[in-house]
Specification:
- By secondary structure, this protein is an alpha+beta fold.
- The protein has one domain (3-122).
- Helices cover 37% and strands 23% of the residues.
- It contains three helices and four strands; from the N terminus they run αβααβββ.
- The chain has helices at 3-30, 42-45, 49-61; strands at 37-40, 77-82, 85-94, 112-119.
- A four-stranded mixed sheet has the order 1-4-3-2.
- The chain is globular and about 55 Å long.
- Pfam families: DUF3768.
- It comes from Sphingomonas turrisvirgatae.
- InterPro entries: DUF3768 (IPR022243).
- This is DUF3768 domain-containing protein.
């Protein structure tokens, strides 16, 4: 293996490790084990309190991650059907002041996670 190939392999392993760190932080956040902000759109709220609770439970327990919906392995997006409605959820990463994107989503000390839950029609 050439030096260039070894460097490429090392970079790929480093990227995979970083994605795994971010995925673990996202899973913990969705499950309620770490802090962040939750945003629920008007369309989801209009479905009623019971619906919001059920949808939140589905988001928290979501495990259907595939290459198509999770190309970077960070587990930051999901979609599922709930009583005929397509629901999307997405995690975004901001700096602690919420002014701009996080400098490092793998570092919880500099990152605020925001989980948005919406109807697909609101996207």
């Amino acid at each position: 293996m050439s030096g260039r190939d070894e460097n490429t392999r090392a970079c790929n392993i480093q990227a995979e490790n970083r994605a795994a760190q971010i995925a673990a932080l996202n899973d913990a956040f969705r499950a309620g084990a770490s802090s962040g902000t939750f945003a629920i759109t008007q369309g989801v709220i209009a479905l009623g309190r019971g619906a919001v609770v059920q949808i939140m439970e589905r988001v928290q327990s979501f495990t259907a991650f595939y290459t198509d919906n999770d190309p970077y392995g960070e587990r930051d997006f999901g979609a599922f059907e709930w009583l005929g409605q397509l629901i999307y959820w997405k995690i975004d990463y901001y700096d602690r002041q919420m002014w701009q994107g996080s400098p490092d989503p793998a570092d919880p000390a500099v990152t605020t996670r925001v989980l948005t839950i919406m109807l697909a029609s609101e996207y």
